[in-house]
Write a structure and sequence with these properties.
With 353 residues, this protein is of the alpha+beta class. The protein is built from eleven helices and 14 strands. The protein is globular and about 65 Å long.
């Protein structure tokens, strides 16, 4: 779907060269790539689109998944909502003085989305790119969900010392015993995907996090050279686990990681993180973003990451109801009328079993 208004605002699809051209205007992240959005839309359901506003002097871009609402009833046929993909595909802006123009640009975006009959907008923000929470807060509801761990790779020794003493000793011991990590050994992908599923079962993860094998294969095919695989091996050469990670414009994201049940006691996740840290330093990257817990919670996954670095940023989201009457009608159709809470949009909140 490609539709640009006379005002220079509209949607472009993943095959439109204007998507890649826009990303050359402003530094972006892995999650802004059309190939990433293609994989995400297949997993999450909907159409991957880029909202693009280009006036010639300034502009903004925002990857979105546009989802039909007709499944909620005939009254909602022809209506949609728009959401960010999993990850951090926040809006990006360019042009001199763009910060002062953010309210105007968002107003143009909202006007276009209303014309497209988009009922609500949900955005996952990026801790390293785009506007700060304070700049977006007057334009909608900004919710902070919890801390997200990162490593500053500009000082290699400092990033090593940021790992707590116990983990540093463990990493040195494992490496001394012959455990190792290799990057982009793609022949191991099937085993690593299986390790990921085993880890999700141990964590009791929601069904959303069970990304299909096709999802990973699409990312490998469509997002090169920005998508990588780190695989951990035992001293006898057996795969023990692995981690998918991305890199773009200096930022590495520790994306999805798995450890085989049989090797859980060996904690390969620690040497995986350290290997990606070293790879990032060697390749001139500035930041390794480890993320937070499942659903941004302070859980065991967050604690594991926090023991590897005490540097944290905040993961936030942006929410905006664009067509209030239709939004409330959707909520009422699902028995959620008048209900408020952390879940947005409320009409998509699943009922607990």
């Amino acid at each position: 779907m490609n539709r640009i208004s006379q005002q220079g605002a509209g949607f472009v699809g993943i095959d439109d060269p204007r998507w890649s051209q826009a990303l050359r205007r402003v530094p972006g992240d892995f999650f802004h790539l059309p190939g990433y959005m293609q994989a995400s839309a297949q997993h999450e359901g909907g159409e991957p689109l880029l909202f693009l506003l280009d006036t010639g002097t300034h502009g903004m871009l925002l990857p979105l998944i546009k989802r039909p609402l007709e499944g909620f009833g005939k009254a909602f046929s022809g209506y949609y909502d728009a959401t960010s993909a999993y990850g951090y595909p926040a809006p990006l802006y360019w042009g001199e003085g763009w910060r002062t123009l953010v309210p105007e640009m968002h107003a143009q975006m909202e006007a276009f989305l209303r014309e497209e009959r988009v009922v609500s907008l949900f955005l996952r923000l990026n801790p390293f790119f785009g506007a700060e929470d304070a700049l977006l807060a007057p334009l909608g509801a900004v919710a902070s969900h919890g801390p997200s761990v990162f490593m500053d790779l500009r000082d290699g020794e400092k990033s090593w010392l940021g790992i707590n003493d116990k983990n540093r000793r463990f990493i040195n011991k494992q490496m001394g015993q012959g455990y190792r990590v290799e990057v982009d050994q793609w022949q191991t992908i099937d085993v690593v995907i299986d390790a990921y599923y085993q880890s999700m079962r141990r964590l009791g993860a929601a069904p959303f996090y069970y990304f299909s094998k096709g999802y990973f294969e699409l990312l490998v095919r469509e997002t090169q050279p920005h998508f990588h695989l780190a695989t951990s091996f035992s001293p006898d050469g057996e795969v023990t686990g692995g981690a998918f990670f991305s890199e773009m414009n200096g930022i590495i994201h520790y994306f999805l990681m798995g450890v085989l049940d049989a090797h859980r006691d060996g904690s390969p996740s620690k040497i995986l993180v350290n290997a990606i840290r070293l790879w990032g330093i060697e390749n001139g990257h500035s930041t390794l973003h480890l993320g937070g817990g499942l659903g941004a919670r302070r859980d065991g996954l967050f604690d594991f990451k926090y023991r590897l670095s005490k540097q944290v940023t905040t993961f936030s989201t942006f929410r905006k109801i664009l067509l209030p009457d239709m939004y409330h009608a959707l909520a009422a159709s699902q028995g959620r009328g008048g209900e408020e809470g952390d879940f947005f949009p409320i009409y998509r909140k699943p009922w607990e079993a």
